[in-house]
Design goal:
alpha/beta; 14% strand; single chain; globular; 347 residues; eight-stranded mixed β-sheet
Length: 347
């Protein structure tokens, strides 16, 4: 029995084969390039106020103005000079590394930016202000082995910063470590008077001892992050070049605006840093382009690209500038250090 004589199939004749066209078909119309839809409240984001000057953008010793080389942000790359060695120590520029979205490169940027600034001869303190203790681990400190941490500094009046600060393997770079105990501070500080100023109060005695203090904030907009923003005079926003991270910028800038109005009028966004950038993907380029459209020169020219080196540095407990000093990732963070120091002179 073949298919044509199978019972019940007589009433369903086989479909006719399509007839090949006898005329040539017009070429397919090319599809327009996909545009990234901005967040609904994107227009409410604050416009930048602090821009690089023409002198910052122009190459050193070039009387003809900016060079023509275009960077990943679509703007001419600045040719910033090497930072001069500091003539004195302090008072410190306090910079919070802040983004409420996790996994955007805050801790990696805090460690490697701090190490790159320390290479210029400036005294740097890195504050691990995340209960996960990732920055501490990234610098070779095991959080569960700590007897005292930043939690004790916040909650115990008889503890001073000098008792908690630890030196690292990197010259000129110190660490104020944290562990899971810090998560309790978020609850306990609610009952404190002037709770938003607790971190600022404990940092005041050591401000003269450092040129730059970097605070690695937790991935949230809770009381710990508000403390960090209140204690800082600048913010660096690491931003993964991905759409969900882009949408979170509106909420973050709203929080920053409230802190500026109510707690710390000196607070300013130093810059927005594109991280985990892969220039081969259209999506990453579109996201970076949207950020530049919204924040203009407040976006750093330096972009941190994806590399397998960063997970390796976490395992060995040291920054990329010492683990792979000649790598492109180390060069990117040294370029970022130049930009940060150009916008926030220290030392």
């Amino acid at each position: 029995m073949n298919e044509s004589t199978f019972p019940g199939t007589e009433q369903f004749p086989p479909p006719a084969r399509p007839i090949a066209p006898t005329v040539s078909q017009p070429a397919a119309t090319p599809q327009p390039q996909r545009n990234l839809t901005p967040p609904d409240n994107y227009a409410e984001m604050p416009r930048p106020t602090a821009k690089l000057t023409a002198e910052d953008i122009a190459p050193v010793n070039d009387p003809h103005g900016p060079r023509n080389k275009i960077g990943p942000t679509g703007r001419p790359l600045p040719d910033l000079p090497e930072p001069k060695p500091p003539t004195k120590t302090g008072p410190a520029q306090v910079i919070a590394m802040c983004n409420q979205k996790g996994g955007v490169g805050k801790t990696t940027t805090t460690i490697n930016l701090g190490a790159a600034i320390a290479e210029t001869g400036r005294k740097v303190l890195l504050i691990d202000f995340d209960p996960q203790g990732s920055a501490s681990i990234g610098l070779g400190v095991q959080p569960h082995d700590l007897d005292i941490s930043v939690y004790n500094l916040l909650m115990q009046r008889d503890i001073t910063a000098d008792e908690v600060i630890q030196p690292t393997r990197v010259e000129n770079l110190d660490l104020l470590p944290a562990n899971i105990d810090l998560s309790a501070a978020e609850v306990q500080l609610v009952q404190e008077v002037a709770r938003e100023y607790t971190l600022q109060r404990v940092l005041e005695p050591i401000i003269p001892n450092y040129d730059v203090i970097l605070i690695d904030c937790a991935p949230s907009l809770g009381l710990l992050t508000v403390n960090a923003l209140t204690a800082s005079n600048g913010i660096v926003v690491p931003l993964e070049c991905e759409f969900f991270a882009l949408r979170g910028l509106a909420m973050l800038t709203d929080t920053i605006g409230k802190v500026q109005d109510r707690l710390n009028p000196k607070l300013e966004i130093v810059g927005i840093l594109g991280t985990m950038f892969d220039g081969r993907t259209t999506h990453a380029r579109e996201v970076l382009d949207r950020v530049v459209q919204a924040f203009d020169e407040r976006v750093f020219h330096t972009v941190i690209r994806r590399t397998v080196k960063f997970p390796e540095t976490t395992v060995v407990g040291e920054p990329i500038t010492t683990y792979a000093p000649s790598s492109s990732a180390a060069t990117q963070y040294r370029d970022l250090a130049k930009e940060v120091l150009a916008r926030c002179p220290a030392g």
